[in-house]
Amino acid sequence: xxxxxxxxxxxxxxxxxxxxxxxxxxxxxxxxxxxxxxxxxxxxxxxxxxxxxxxxxxxxxxxxxxxxxxxxxxxxxxxxxxxxxxxxxxxxxxxxxxxxxxxxxxxxxxxxxxxxxxxxxxxxxxxxxxxxxxxxxxxxxxxxxxxxxxxxxxxxxxxxxxxxxxxxxxxxxxxxxxxxxxxxxxxxxxxxxxxxxxxxxxxxxxxxxxxxxxxxxxxxxxxxxxxxxxxxxxxxxxxxxxxxxxxxxxxxxxxxxxxxxxxxxxxxxxxxxxxxxxxxxxxxxxxxxxxxxxxxxxxxxxxxxxxxxxxxxxxxxxxxxxxxxxxxxxxxxxxxxxxxxxxxxxxxxxxxxxxxxxxxxxxxxxxxxxxxxxxxxxxxxxxxxxxxxxxxxxxxxxxxxxxxxxxxxxxxxxxxxxxxxx
Length: 422
Description:
Blueprint: H1 25-33, H2 47-61, E1 67-74, E2 77-88, E3 93-94, E4 101-102, H3 107-121, H4 151-155, H5 172-176, H6 189-197, H7 214-226, H8 230-242, E5 261-262, E6 269-270, E7 275-279, E8 282-286, E9 305-306, H9 308-320, H10 328-334, E10 351-353, E11 358-360, H11 363-366, E12 375-379, E13 383-388, E14 393-399, E15 401-402, H12 404-407, H13 409-419
Parallel strand pairs: 5-15
Antiparallel strand pairs: 1-2, 1-14, 2-3, 4-9, 5-6, 7-8, 10-11, 11-12, 12-13, 13-14
Helix pairs in contact: 2-13, 3-7, 3-8, 7-8, 9-10
């Protein structure tokens, strides 16, 4: 998700601890006072390193995150890499650079890339309509008509679909029981798609950007066009060509994953099942055990698990146009704004969207001290990533803290320290 435009209102949401968490207060305060000593800084001591060290250390010392991993690549060379804090604060397990995180929307560039690989192979076309692959998925406009939704619409989030957190509690998505791909362990895609298709489209496809379950639908299209499951398709089309072995859709043991936390009044609080975090027009609902239930449909928009390093590998492959995945022109096109027409107010001034993330088209209008063309997105479990084609830098920030690592001070500070034009 976008660092700056996913979350109306304050830049860092405050989670109100529910009943039953009071017994954890002493543990939380003790954890803040006894935070793990950060791992040694990246050798070299240059200006970039010093700035990033200060940013990470402050986030841990001020108890804004439980743990974080930050990677910065320049011209394909990793110039900064560091892990700070805890993978499991209560058990005092240090966070490692190769830790396995719940990706949330970091899943989207993997699935979008898989779709583009199928386009390259001729198995899919950007102009194909979704009902060619999902004949029963035909959501309607409020006037009752059923407009065609194309693969291009799904990639650019102009399909007319939405997310439940973008509407107030009690809205149509909530009433239909639509899952955003973060909750409802064991829910099948077919059932979620059936529910989604009962809700009127927010706009005629192709006319407006609305961040949405488009990539979940795209994931099922990829699976059917490939003739396998989505996990098998992503592995064959994206992971294996890049030599990635950690990324996946399900884990067998919770101990294999970084423990998720959410913003709290004093320090991050450990997530429980059904954890609600105020966000958008209502709230995000998290089910950490969804990743452990193989019956849960593989959400193309939020369902993958993986490491910071493997995300960096994918983003770098897109930045340089790695022929193992895509022709250079196709890869670079995925990083360019695709929304020359239509309503982009959801994204804010000076920001468009490509096929894998938002694109800063006018830094001054966007209020961002980055180069025009910078691509950025993230994930609500606490992650952010950037690709700057001008400075040839790619940045990956993964934390265990919702929402600080995505839309809080840490994400803003990392952008300023790693990508500012000074």
